[in-house]
Protein 1
Amino acid sequence: MEHGGDLLSYEMYYNGELIDYSSNINPLGPPKGLREVLMDSFKNLEAYPDMKYRKLKKSISNYLKCNEENTIVGNGAVELINDFIMLANRVLICTPSFSEYEKRAIIHEKEVIRIPYNSDFTIDMKAIGNIIEKDDLIILGNPNNPTGLRLDKIELTILHNIIKKSGAYLVLDEAFFEFCSGDYDSIELFRESNYENVGIIRAATKFFALPGIRLGYGCTSMALAKEISKIELPWSVNSFAEAAGNFIFNDKEYIRTSKEYIEIERQYMYQELSRLSLIKVFPTETNYILIKLLKWDEEYVFNFFLERGIVIRKCSSFTGLDKNYIRVAIKARKDNEKLIEIFNELEKM
């Protein structure tokens, strides 16, 4: 399983509706009113989207609090990651991390350099400083998938300075940004430097519960935004995604409620799972939890949960993790209680 969310492959093994704990989508669902917006936008399908996405970029720039000239959009965060990779010389990846970083780099025939995270899943700053060269690109999940950890603000500032001095580039994949605490916002952090040598990528997929819309967006320097505009595919954002982007960022109540809900469930899940003796639960700053299995392997636990109607994420597909790791999403309380009940049942086996 290279990616989560593949319920079709497993529905034959359970007589009922599966609960998907392998993908990390806001359990509250999309913002209210979006259905009507999308239905009303059906008429827009008769024309091409604006190739420059002027209205959409204005909506995104208002949400991110950056200039429209710094704003970039794409068919999901992966397309924007792909565009940055195309501009790079070598690609540096800290492992374990999202598999598409390396996959996209290999497809574009870029040299890939893996730098393992430290044992506590923090970045190895010294190793990065020793390896990085001019025109390299380093991609970091912030928070990282599957570890759930976010870069410390001071650590991120130091890393950016190292990268700038080397003439390299940093891409922060912040697809899970909105789930995090408000200790810092990287877009605000890099505003004074005009986003020199840095790209910050976010998406409607996770927090706004719209994986099918495929809307990625972000912020970078005007120079890099212009370079990306030269290689990006035309009309990569469809009319439905454009309509969604012009609506969802204005729903402040939805954003506030979602943040509060996830924070409560994250604390509940972490505390309850930490009581168990046969698993190690790693701290998280987002809406999923990485777990090390101390008695079983991922296959046994995956099947144990599948037989009880829950699909979890096996993690051996992440470079740097073996078959003793799984990842679970944070969902609605009723579902979370069921997950914890199954873990308790597993412990008694």
Protein 2
Amino acid sequence: MDFSISENQKMIEAMVRDFAKKEIQDDLMRWDEDQIFPVPLFRKLGEMGLMGVLVPEEYGGSGFGYHEYVTAIIELGKVCGSIALSMAAHNSLCTNHILTFASEEQKKEYLPKLASGEWIGAWALTEQETGSDAGGMLTTAVKDGDHYVINGTKNFITHGKSGNIVVVIVRTGEKGDSRGMSAFAIEKGTPGFNAGKKENKLGMRASETTELIFDECRVHKSQMIGKEGDGFIQALKILEGGRISIAALSIGIAKGAFEAAKQYSKERHQFGKPISKFQAISFKLADMATRIEASLLLTQEASDMKNKKMAVNKITAMAKLYASETAVWVANEALQVFGGYGYTKDYPVEKFYRDAKLCTIGEGTSEIQKLVISRECLK
């Protein structure tokens, strides 16, 4: 694997860094406090090509690979985890599901709108009683002539209210049957399809999370993605790429917290010298930097293998597990470097601390990642 940074990555890194400074930095705490999902910002990200990073140019996307995608998420995550999370969810879940499994007609209909940022995408798998146990989902789609009638509720759905289209996985067969679930693309405004409760969250507060409610929602069979019964298998493949997204998000948050702590340690004086001169602090920074670098290397390997269309189930789970746990650990250590000031909203580290925890839960908990890794190791 080539560890050098490509010119495209350098360009994306500089572009996103400049964008975040101009368009995000001054408003991120207001968005966080008031749980504002800044839809206009994502239109601007679309204009920059960041809402369709992996989408081929023929469908209006940027046509890049996972290395460029990871670079963009990391740079956004260094400033605001919420914005990076929403950008990642749009790209790797909804948009990528359509790109990977939809018909040519569906791709031409939806991908240009998603890649441009004209539309924001959502992806719905989780239910209240079936988080990690997706096979036990209760939301059903019953065939009625050329239509399916969908009933049930999904929860913890990113962009559930503001999204223009959702890819939803529902049960079309027996409960617990991996071949008993199917995927549908459903547009906002479809009768019987509505957003429910908006979650009041600890962190990632500017990334919208809501319920989705389906009440006698009729969709034409042409809205199914792929074949009936393929939905769960499709979802597992999409989550492989999603793990890379969360690993990158975790690295971004960890880097943001680390850089804030490093800068503060140079500025804060105790006993006549910067606290960075004390071994207790300098060793913390050394450990933080090492774990971030290890997380990055795992994620780069996963990205390289994903670009080459290799089997990535184990490596993406490893990257997601290690990077997300690293983000939580680094954010905690960074807050400790700040001391009492780190516990206040006058400094950015408390937000990194709150945002980081989601990374160990979303798109597969750390425990699920260990299950995936152990199964792969024991084959």
Protein 3
Amino acid sequence: MTTRTGGVSPPPYASLNPASHVGDDPAAVAENRRILRAALPAEPLWLNQVHGAGVAQFPAAGTPDADAAVAHRPGQVCAVLTADCLPVLFCDVSGQAVAAAHAGWRGLAAGVLERTVEALGVQPGKVLAWLGAAIGPAAFEVGPEVRQAFVAQHAEAARAFAPGAGDRLLADIYELARIRLAAIGVTQVYGGGLCTHADASRFYSYRREGVTGRMASLVWLTPPNPDTPTETP
């Protein structure tokens, strides 16, 4: 997962903003993507994220309307962009498949994580998930309709909400993701605990800044090294 530092964009996008849809100078975005691309085996599959549960599979042309991407071959780079929403990266224990999902509360409630795990084509018990930086439970204020949407599907989701001001609630998007993943058998879940809203030096936050950039969360299977000797049976 990238942070907001190391790029060329001016404020309020300073500085490593790879998102082309937030009003940043296209030339700066292109240079930021070039900087990022230097650390990757290939150009990422960038998505047009719509806060839904659609999953793009490689190979895909253009910029698919989807909130997750799945790859099964080395060198195919899955990527999602976030600035408070939860990025979730997946792989299987044998290193045969990877995926990246963008999980705002709407996509999370719509089942984007479940759809992504299904698209991996791996038994859920053999899936590893990593939760990237997102807005933390002390800052993620939502309305009662959000709690209702999650509790209607999983009663235990009630524990992910705490009272806020008036009828507002504070939601723990990390806990909501863990509950939904556990419900389908994904229990090897790591990461979580970083708050984009609280750490302005490292992370963009849409709720904190309004006009801002995005971080990229990326995952891929490493292409085989041709210089590495293979074992013979």
Protein 4
Amino acid sequence: MSRRAVILFAAMAVIWGIPYLLIRVAVEEVSPPVLVFARTSVGAAVLLPLALVRVNLGPTWRHWRWVVAFAAAEIAGPWVLLGWAEQHVTSSLAGLLVAGVPLVGTAIAFLSGRDRHISGPALAGLLLGLAGVAAIAGTDLNAENAAAVGAIGLVVVGYAVGPWILAHKLVGVPSLGVMAPSLTLSALLYLPIAVIQWPATTPSPQALASIVILGLVCTALAFVLFAELIAAVGPVRATVITYINPAVAATLGVAILGEPFTVAMALGFVLVIAGSVLATRRPRAHADPEPRPEPAAA
């Protein structure tokens, strides 16, 4: 990867490693639909004015069906499912299961005929990274709520489909022209539910801070950076950040919650890094066939 791609990869690995902790804090006091509404509203409030002023929204209107599909696959569906699941299983287990996104993305790329060149080392890297995540979150594998695990499985599919839509169906559409409308549509979708389920008492400062950080950093900033990362390395390789996210979540658990740092966690982190390097390495025998979406204006 280029230096720019490495920087984007590292930034996204950290930014999307934080939400597991924040979601867990927030859903203790607000319902998942309220959390999704609040998060998307904050993100839309930041990105929509920028999109209206700085980019040409003509391509967005011409591809509105795929913009709606992206919003459903990447935001509206997965975020409420993940919030509900984290009311029943640990955030570490959620991170472990979401780490299967690159594998699903690889399968989608192969089945769609867009990428018939998944190399042996790349596949080995995907599996190695998954083994690393299993080592990090191994103590949480005794989840009893099968419905929550199934919900996270749907999240994994959505997170894999979203980048594929962005890279193959929204080529030429500015990043802000996709992200801002997607967040706005999701916020409008959950507005009626949020009104009904709005908490009777004001959430704690910790919950409110979690919601604000989720909206500003983990949504508004993250989606722009993620689109740039997809443009740099392609949708399959971009989703390999889900291998680093659980490592970040585990580190936060040690630093903030005082959780022990075990040998298995240390070994898992090494496997995650090694797997990510292998999975994101481009084959030398051919150029990457994946089309690149247009980077965000400004």
